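ARCHIVE CARD
Drawer: 12
Card no.: 0347
Subject: one protein chain, sequence and derived structure
Cross-reference: see card 0346
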Amino acid sequence: MVPHSLREVLLVALLSNYEGVADYPAAIFVDELLTAYPEAPVILTVRSEDSWAKSMNQTIVHYINNRVIDETTPMAVMARAYSKFCWDDDFDKNGLALFRRHNEHVRLAAKERKFLEYTVGDGWEPLCAFLEAPVPENTPFPGKDDWLEYKKQIHK
């Protein structure tokens, strides 16, 4: 693997002790990650637009709109930049377009590699088959967002 840009160099350095990435902020760097790790398999988790929008409104958008408006903490500054970058500070107007654009971009960018479009509700089997890993025994699949745990983390 040979990084081609400063972003790729930084991502490779940051991720050197990890086997995978998920969600944001990794989702912002799809192209850089695919270039930096050309052999890496790609899993795109999908769900309904309504479910995604509801989850976003209850977590990230709620946090940005109700907590970080005037804060100067690094997390607050990052959250405001994220809101501006991802949906131009108007999630209701631009959020679903971001969701659609991102999913389509990942599908196209990863079309030449090992790729799984995965719905969390499908459980362990398709995920483990794709990763060529055994299905965990006696381990229930963690199949939902934990809103209460999220709230605890952001209010620390």
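Annotation on reverse: The mean pLDDT is 87. The domain at 41-154 is CATH 3.40.50.300 (Rossmann fold).
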